[in-house]
Design the sequence.
C-alpha cells in the first residue's frame, strides 16, 4: 500500500487468531515458548518471535511499522517519551571524545541534554545559528559525529534549510538528527532531504488528545538493528503497550487533525497580525515571516503552532493569558484543544537569560497551539483577552 491515507488506517496491521477488527492490545510483559530449544533460537535471533515487552511487543511493533510507513523511513523504535527518543538517538552512537553540532533554537529539555548531560560523558557540543549553512560547515571537526536540529523551532518557528544541512553532513560522513515535532510527519518529510534520523514526541500531535506519553525514532533498518536497538533494549526506555495502542489508533486521524488545525492556525496568525495589541507574530506561512519562502519549500502547511509578542511587559502578557476563556494554560502542544504557554517561564525556563534573549524568547512572548474548536470562537476569545489586556 502506497497511499498515506490507507497506510494510516491499515499499515502494519497484524491480527491475532481471533480476527479482531481493531488492532489488539497486548498488555503482557513476557511471552512463552514451545520449548527450551525455541527459546534459545529466538534469543539467538535464529527464529523470529517475541521475548519480552522491553525488547518488542505485537502492539508496539504495529505502531512502529505504521509510523515508519507514514514518515517514509525503513524502520522505527518506539520509546517511553519524546525526550527518551532524543537522548537515545544520540547516546546510542556517541562516545567520549566525539563532537556534536546543534542548532541553538531548541526545546528547553533538548538543549539541557546537549549542554548539561552530554559534556559529562566527555562529548563536545557546539551551538550555532542553524539558519546559517556556513556555521554548520565552519564548526565541523574530525570528530564531529552528529548534526542535531529542530525545524520549525520551539517556540519562535525558526526554519532551517534541511537539504542544505543534510548535504553538508553527508559530504563529511556525519549523521543528521531532525526533531520534526512542530512540523509533524503530515507536513514535513525530512527523509526526502537526506535526514538520517527523525525523532518525535508521540505525546504531541501523534496522540493529539493529551492522554499518553510516547516517543519514536525513525531510521534505517541497519542503524536500528546494529546501533539503536542494542542500546535501547538494555537501557530500558520502552513504551507501554497501552500507550503504543493509543498512539497507533490516533495515527488513523492525524492527517485529518493536523491539516484542519493548520488551516485554522494560518487564519489565526493572520488575525493576530492585524491586531494593534500584537507586536510580532511568528508563523512560517505568513508573508511577513522572514523565512516564509524556505518554510514553503519544506512544509506543505504552516503547522498548528505559532508564537507572538504582546505589546507590553510580563505583567500585561500574564493578564492576556489569564483572561483567555477557551485556551487552556499548559506546556503541551498538538492537542485537539487550543493551548497557551508562556515559554520564558515554563518550556524554556532552563535556558539562561542571555540564551533566551539570543533566541528572542522574551517575557512578552506567547506560544499557542491551535486545536479543533470553531475558528470564530477562538478569534473572539483572543480578541476579548487582548482588549482586556
Sequence:
Amino acid at each position: 500500500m502506497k497511499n498515506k491515507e490507507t497506510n494510516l488506517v491499515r499499515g502494519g496491521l497484524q491480527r491475532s487468531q481471533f480476527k479482531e477488527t481493531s488492532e489488539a492490545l497486548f498488555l503482557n510483559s513476557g511471552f512463552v515458548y514451545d520449548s527450551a530449544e525455541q527459546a534459545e533460537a529466538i534469543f539467538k535471533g535464529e527464529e523470529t518471535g517475541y521475548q519480552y515487552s522491553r525488547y518488542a511487543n505485537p502492539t508496539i511493533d504495529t505502531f512502529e511499522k505504521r509510523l515508519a510507513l507514514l514518515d517514509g523511513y525503513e524502520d522505527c523504535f518506539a520509546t517511553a517519551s519524546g525526550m527518551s527518543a532524543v537522548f537515545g538517538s544520540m547516546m546510542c552512537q556517541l562516545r567520549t571524545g566525539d563532537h556534536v553540532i546543534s542548532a541553538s533554537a531548541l526545546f528547553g529539555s533538548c538543549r539541557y541534554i546537549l549542554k548539561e548531560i552530554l559534556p559529562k560523558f566527555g562529548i563536545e557540543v557546539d551551538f550555532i545559528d542553524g539558519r546559517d549553512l556556513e556555521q554548520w560547515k565552519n564548526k565541523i571537526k574530525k570528530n564531529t559525529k552528529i548534526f542535531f536540529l529542530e525545524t520549525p523551532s520551539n517556540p519562535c518557528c525558526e526554519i532551517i534549510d534541511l537539504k542544505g544541512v543534510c548535504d553538508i553532513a553527508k559530504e563529511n560522513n556525519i549523521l543528521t538528527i531532525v526533531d520534526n515535532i512542530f512540523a509533524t510527519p503530515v507536513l514535513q518529510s525530512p527523509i526526502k532531504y537526506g535526514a538520517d534520523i527523525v525523532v518525535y514526541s508521540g505525546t504531541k500531535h501523534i496522540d493529539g488528545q493529551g492522554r499518553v506519553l510516547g516517543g519514536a525514532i525513525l531510521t534505517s533498518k541497519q542503524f536500528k538493528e546494529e546501533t539503536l536497538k542494542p542500546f535501547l533494549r538494555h537501557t530500558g526506555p520502552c513504551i507501554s503497550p497501552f500507550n503504543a495502542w493509543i498512539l497507533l489508533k490516533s495515527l488513523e486521524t492525524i492527517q485529518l487533525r493536523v491539516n484542519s488545525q493548520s488551516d485554522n492556525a494560518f487564519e489565526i496568525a493572520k488575525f493576530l497580525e492585524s491586531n494593534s495589541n500584537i507586536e510580532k507574530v511568528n508563523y512560517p506561512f505568513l508573508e511577513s515571516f522572514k523565512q516564509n519562502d524556505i518554510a514553503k519549500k519544506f512544509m506543505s502547511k504552516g503547522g498548528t503552532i505559532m508564537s507572538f509578542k504582546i505589546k507590553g511587559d510580563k505583567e500585561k502578557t500574564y493578564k492576556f493569558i489569564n483572561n483567555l476563556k477557551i485556551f487552556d494554560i499548559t506546556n503541551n502542544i498538538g492537542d485537539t484543544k487550543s493551548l497557551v504557554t508562556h515559554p520564558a517561564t515554563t518550556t524554556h525556563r532552563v535556558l539562561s537569560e542571555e540564551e533566551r534573549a539570543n533566541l528572542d524568547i522574551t517575557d512578552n512572548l506567547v506560544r499557542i497551539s491551535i486545536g479543533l474548536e470553531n475558528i470564530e470562537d477562538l478569534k473572539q476569545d483572543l480578541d476579548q483577552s487582548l482588549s482586556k489586556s
The mean pLDDT is 96. The longest helix spans residues 254-273.
